[in-house]
Amino acid sequence: MAKDSMLSGMGNLNPDAAKMSSGKNRISLKDLGALLRFTGTSKFSLLLLIFAAIVSGGLQVVAPALLGDTIDNMGDVGAVDLSFLGTRAVILLGMYLVAALFTWVVSFFANIVAAKTALEVRKALSLKLTRLPISFYDTHPQGETSAYFINDADAISEGMLQGLLNFFTVLVTIMGTVGFMVFISWKMTLIILPMAVLMIWSATTIAKKTTKYFKKQQNLVAEISGDVEENLYGRKEIKAFGCEEKFLGSFREKNEELNASSVTAQFASSLPNPVTRFVDSTTYILIGALGVWFGGLTVGNIATFFLFWKNFSKPINDLTNITTQIMAAFASLTRVFTILDLPEESEEKACEDTVEQEPGGKGEVLFEHVNFGYTKEKKIFDDFSLKVEPGQKVAIIGPTGCGKTTLMNLLMRFYEQDSGRIVIDGKDIRDIPRAKLRRMFGMVLQETWLLEASIRDNIAYGKPDATEEEIVRAAQAARAHGFIMRLPNGYDTVLGQELSLSEGQKQLLCIARVLLMDPSLLILDEATSAVDTLTEKRIVEAFENMTKGRTGFIIAHRLSTIAGADQVIKLGAPAPSAAKSTNLKPNGDTI
After folding, report:
1. Are residues 316 and 379 in the same domain?
2. What is the predicted pLDDT for the residue at 133?
3. Is 325:347 a contact under the CB 8 Å cutoff?
């Protein structure tokens, strides 16, 4: 947003900022339920994955039992039944081949489910970001916000992939293995199960302790992303002020902190694997020693228990190997749901005529005793009133931070006033749906925003079905047609690839984009502050063309920009006292 919406002291304008910085300590059942809903678009793949996991896990349980029975029935030395042995070998080979095939099927569909989940997460985030109030963007760096789409969505996808690859197979394998072990020897099972519980407990306990380290790591990644974005955006200023070392110093400090956090997280996440492997090896010793001591177990039974324990422990060891991805996914999931749980723009006022209500298009604007503050301590407007007649051009001036842009934000319902009324053509703006209200306005900001697309597409951004004639007419009215035709490919010139325009030329394109929309009210917010006098003259001329028969608001500091205004509204200084307005004569009073 333009500068006046980002006033000094806005660090706490929204309580959600504190919520975002602190985050939640753990994933709730609600979050896990929502994550499962993200997999809804891949139900078929998930069902196939579960089926393949059951088949693969089942075969890995049955095969050891069959192998143990084969060992016990091989006969004495020199009396081996080769026919029986060959038949069993073929059967076992077939079982392991089928198990391997279905293991691949599990991997294939796990990739599909994980990728679609990341897709749905990004879709949910993009939808959420369109519904969040402007205050969110005023308090969160762009780089940090983009990290949710890139780093966190990828981390969730990777964590889900690794989890899906193991979870269902592990579930089937463990349940089947326990059943077979009880059938063969319940005594040995009672010895082995506590070792399994110890393995799982040690792995999960250590993993829980590492979650906070991965959460810190993901937050630092987001901070560094924000810093890099800030550096790219302000690269000219950084070089102009010779602050390269200052930026590098700050970046190195955070990068070192990220490195230390990553090392700690990786070290913590590496602990479960050696612990579980120690328990694993100890259990093999117990099976061999106690199997002989109990006496009732055959050589085949002991071999079967060895294989069962391998089936039992291997998935747990595999899970400990991917603790890093799982913990990073949980940390990212916490961050994503912190965003998704933020309150959206307030609901539209419920009244029968809200949807059908359409402003008359005259352009009469009335502020009646409006009060507004970003916080209770930071009040911007106190009993502010203003009446603008249809077709008038109103200039709004005042010191930086007095609320010039904030006044326009209130008019377009980017923020809601604390009390009082704002009326357009006799209708309270709270009775007009936001989308319909904002379509009434055409806004040209100080900071230009253009797509990396053709000039034609940029002008027609708000009206993609515009004809070539309409686009050219809008460019001519904005005084942009001349320089466009001098470009190598005219209206087909692609910005960002073929050339970079001057700030003044970008502003003229923004004005052409607004003209094409043919709005009933216009706002020019410091659009001439960064251009030369000649370009300013062209922008002012273009704005005057736009405001013919329309109500227009101009936020500016230059006298030349507001010379033709019908009203000049001077806002007072910001807090500690809220802004007051003074209605000046446009051609008499000195600014």
Report:
1. no
2. 77
3. no
What is the Cα–Cα distance from 196 to 129, expressed in whole angstroms?
45
Q: Characterise 95 by phi-psi region: left (phi > 0), alpha (psi -120 to 50), beta (else).
A: alpha
Answer with the one of 290, 324, 340 that is the final residue of a domain.
340
* pLDDT tens digits, 269-327: 777 778 777 887 888 888 877 776 765 677 777 888 888 888 777 766 666 666 666 77
Q: Residues of the chain whose pLDDT is less than 50?
A: 1-25, 350-360, 575-580, 585-591
- Asked if 381 contacts 370 with a C-beta cutoff of 8 angstroms, the reply is yes
Which residue, among 514, 551, 558, 566, has the nearest Cα to 533 in the 3D structure?
Answer: 558
Judged by DSSP in three states, 369 sits in: strand
Query: Are 304 and 401 found together in one domain?
Result: no
Looking at the fold, whether 327 and 438 belong to one and the same domain comes out as no
On whether residue 351 sits in a domain, the answer given is no
Q: Concatenated DSSP letters for 120-142? A: HHHHHHHHHHHHS-HHHHHHS-H
Do 383 and 256 share a structural domain?
no
Q: What CATH number is associated with residue 49?
A: 1.20.1560.10
Per-residue pLDDT tens over the stretch 503-520: 778 888 888 888 888 888
The amino acid at 154: D
151 close to 225: Cβ distance less than 8 angstroms:
yes
Does one domain contain both 252 and 307? yes
Type and span of the H or E element at 58: helix 43-72
Q: How far is CA 475 from CA 277, 359, 514, in A?
A: 71, 27, 10
Question: Which residue do the tokens 């110093």 mark?
Answer: 249
CA dihedral of 264, 267, 268, 271, whole degrees rounded to 10: -170
Residue listed under structure tokens 């990828």: 154
Per-residue pLDDT at 109: 86
Residue 363 is given by DSSP the state -
**Cβ–Cβ < 8 Å for 513, 463:** no
- Tell me how far apart the alpha carbons of residues 92 and 299 are, in angstroms, rounded to a whole number: 18
CATH number for the domain spanning 502: value is: 3.40.50.300
Q: Please indicate, yes or no, whether residues 324 and 473 belong to a single structural domain of this protein.
A: no
Same domain, 194 and 245: yes
Whether 21 is covered by a domain: the verdict is: no
pTM (two decimals)? 0.58
The two beta strands, 441-444 and 521-525, are parallel
Distance CA 246, CA 307 (A): 60
Domain extent for 33: 29-340
Predicted local confidence at residue 236, as pLDDT: 64
Q: How far is 525 from 408, CA to CA, in rounded Å?
A: 9
Indicate whether 12 belongs to any domain: no
Give the pLDDT of residue 422: 92
- Shared-domain flag, residues 415 and 299: no
| Domain count of the fold of the chain | 2
